Structures are given as C-alpha cells and as structure tokens.
Amino acid sequence: MNTELNASRGFIPNLCDVSAVFMLVLMVELLSVLLAMAPSEQSGFWQRLALISFFAQWLGLVNASLLCVLKNWLNKQRVLVCALLSYALMLLITVLFSALVVYASQLIGISSRANEQAIIYFILRNLAIGGIIYGVVLRYFYVQYQWRSNLQAQSHAQVQALKARIRPHFLFNSMNTIASLVHIDANKAEKAVEDLSDLFRASLQEDTIHTLQDELNLIESYIDIEYLRLDQRLSVQWQLDEAAMDIEVPSLCLQPLVENAIYHGLEPLEEGGKIKISAQLENNQLCLSVTNPVTGHGAMSRHKGNHMAQENIRTRLTLMYGNEAEFIIKAEPNLYTVSIGIPLKI
C-alpha cells in the first residue's frame, strides 16, 4: 500500500516511540534479573543485580538511540545489509561500552585494577552475551518486517475491493438522477452525463490515495449532478482549511459520505436543507466531517442504508492508519454527522 511504504515501516522499527522504549527497559530489566540469578563468585544478589542492571540498561538505551537516529538511513538499504550493519554496530557499541565501564570503575575506585586477561574476558563475555541477544532481536525484527509486508499486500487488495463495492452504488444513484432528467431537460441530462464521465474518470484511478483537493473535486462534480435534480432544495456549506488541501487522504473517503448525506438525509425532507462539509487541521490530525439534516422521526431507519459505505470507509482507514485513525458517527434529533480523523505524518 503506497501510503505505508516509508522508512517507519522498514526492517528497523520505530525505537524512538515511548512505548517501545518502555518495553525495552522492561525486557532489559528482566534479562538483568536472570543474569543476576546465575551462579557467580561474587556475593550478594542485589549488588550483582544493581551492577548488571545499570550496565545493561545504559547499553540497551544507547543501542536503541543509535538505531533510532540511523533508522531512516538503515531502512533504505537491503534487508540483509541493514541487518548486518545493525548487528555490527551494536557489537561495536558493546565493546566500547564494556571498555568504558572497566576504565570508569578503576578510575573512581569501584574495583581494583584487574589484569589484562580479566579485562579481555569481561569484554568477550559481554560481546558473546550481546551477540546472542542481538541476533534474537534482529530475528524478531525480521519476522515483524515480513508480517508487515504481507499485511500491506493484503490491505492493498482489500482497499481495492472496498472501493469497487462503493462505485456501483454511486453509479446506480447517479444514473437514476440522469434518468429523471432525460424527459424534463435534455440539456441538463447531457451536462449530467459529462459530469458523471469526468467523475468516473477520476474515481477509477488505481491510486489508493490522493490529495484532499482531489477528493473535494470529486465531491464538487457529484454535487453538480445532484444540483440538477434537487435545485433549490440542496445547499452546501464549505468550511475548508487551505493549508490542508495538499494532504494525502484515502481516495473516496468523503464522496460516499456526501452521497449518503443527500440520499438518506436531505432528500426525504420536503424543504431540503444544507449539507456542511468541513476539513480542518487540529491536534496533529486532519479532521474531516459531513453534516446533514435528518427527519426527526424515523431518522435512524433511513440511515441504516448508509452502513455499507460507512463500514467500507471505516475498514479502509483502519487498514491504512491502524488505531490512529478515527471514524465517529454522531446522530442527533435533527442532524447527522460523520467525522473522520486522519493522523498527519511528521
């Protein structure tokens, strides 16, 4: 899925995330406890745990910080090259950090001066333990990378299928509009066919994403068709943030909602009404919403026909953005609002 093919989805995950750092600290501490419980000539479990924990936590955080800084560059390499570079880098940090600990402990008098053989043994032991742990961690990264790659392929196929389910629904509604105009005003019917042709030429593109401006252009073409049929009964209020126009959004994420707002909300009202379309930037999100009037009595039964398009869009948002996306429905006695929250990529 082209929305997700970026460095953050590469072989090296986002180790800058707070939750990832928390899990790292927790796992390192559990490992420190296991190492402290191993038989040793040194006495005192808590003293060994404190020293091992201090060393392991700092080593883990330094390695994670380095991978975090180099993540974008590493993820541009081939997977094997990325893994080998990461492995070598972490081993190098382990050697340097072990040597630094030996020097610092002797400098401040925590331990007496050890012979050269003992220092080499300490460094090699840390290198061996680190090599095993780093190998397991990189294997875990690879399994996660493969899982994400497979999920991207499946998600792309599902998005295409969901879009295909929306298009026939829109086509049937538009053809009904044109059919109602043929015997009333042939010129308007011809104009509607041209608008429909332009609209489908754009909506049948293979891209799963486009800019918000492209999505609004689709909506304007659709509304032009509906204006021919509803005339004065249809009114549209736009509330748009110009800074949001170039932001990428899933294609056909708003147009089906506007279509539902007209067919299931405004059209049953004898006097018609106003549809409000909003696009604003708030709290590091692109907030989109469509609000339409509804009949106070039996409004929910009218909106049951909306569920297919709504569930399709909700599913597509989840596939593309995971739990960071929002899809909220607010039903009031005389108003019906569908809101979408799309996270901005920083």
Keywords:
single chain; 346 residues; alpha+beta; Heat Shock Protein 90; 2 domains; two-stranded antiparallel sheet; 9 helices; 7 strands; disordered N terminus
Task: Explain how this protein is built.
By secondary structure, the chain is an alpha+beta fold. It has helices spanning 18-37, 45-74, 79-107, 116-182, 186-203, 212-230, 255-266, 299-303, 307-321; strands at residues 209-211, 234-240, 248-250, 273-282, 285-293, 326-331, 335-343. The strands form 2 sheets. A 5-stranded mixed β-sheet has the order 2-4-5-7-6, covered by helices on one side. The chain has a two-stranded antiparallel sheet with strand order 1-3. The protein is elongated and about 100 Å long. Mean pLDDT is 82; it is low at 1-8. Residues 157-234 form the Signal transduction histidine kinase internal region domain. This is Signal transduction histidine kinase internal region domain-containing protein.
In short:
With about 350 residues, this protein is α+β, with helices and mostly antiparallel strands. The protein has helices at about 20-35, 45-75, 80-105, 115-180, 185-205, 210-230, 255-265, 300-305, 305-320, and strands at about 210, 235-240, 250, 275-280, 285-295, 325-330, 335-345. The protein has 2 domains: about 5-150, no CATH class; about 185-345, Histidine kinase-like ATPase, C-terminal domain (Heat Shock Protein 90), CATH 3.30.565.
